[in-house]
Amino acid sequence: MLQPGNGVGMDRAGLKKLRLLIVGGKPHAIATLRTVFGIIGINQVCYTADSVRAIELLRHEEFDAVFADDAADKVGLLAFPLAARRARGVINPMLPIYLVCASPLRHQVEGARNDGVTDVLARPISAATVIRKLRVAVLAPRPFIMAGEFFGPDRRGGARAPYGGDDRRTRTPKRMKVSAGETAALLAQGAPSVPALVDSQN
Question: Which of 41, 96, 183, 199 is 20 to 30 Å from 191 by CA-CA measure?
Fold first, then answer.
């Protein structure tokens, strides 16, 4: 399993080592996505239509990335990406999660990012797009943030120029940049800054 940021090259040989999970979606969309993965050389692909089953897989098996259809069932009251970040016992709550949509609107993209999605991909997805997104996720991942009820990749698109005026912002709970090890420790301790965890059975 390739770990984000460890400097492993993402050439064709590296891509073939990836293990992916597909969640939800219509048969034709799933077949198309599998075909794209096959073109790249990724054959270790697991699929489930059941979001609850997907959470169980994330608890017991290691994956390098998840591609979830925007129509994937909720886990209890939570959208699948949000549940995947918060569910108890998930091996890697910081793995890349891509939401696949037909024609995503701006509010859908913003909502997905608030749920902790790594990126939103519009169908049809090309092999070049998948390669580019996976390379970024492994070689230059965005830092993960814990702030209030949010837990996921940093939603800011880039560095902002410093503001020279008075600071009139309303103070919110401190943002925390966390590593995978720190995340596991915080989840185990039930730290207050970690969003409430969920059990997929609920």
Answer: 96
Q: Are 67 and 90 in contact (CB under 8 A)?
A: no
Pick the closest to residue 67 from 40, 29, 105 (CA basis): 29
Distance CA 153, CA 146 (A): 9
Would you mind telling me the total number of residues written for the chain in this entry? 202
Instruction: Identify the helix (H) or strand (E) that includes residue 113.
Output: helix 106-114
Q: What number does CATH give the domain 12-189?
A: 3.40.50.2300
Q: What is the pLDDT of residue 155?
A: 78
CB neighbour class for 128 (10 Å; exposed up to 12, middle 13-18, buried from 19): exposed
Question: Shortest CA distance to 200 belongs to which of 47, 88, 118, 68?
Answer: 88
pTM above 0.90, yes or no: no
Q: 10 Å Cβ neighbour count for 124?
A: 11
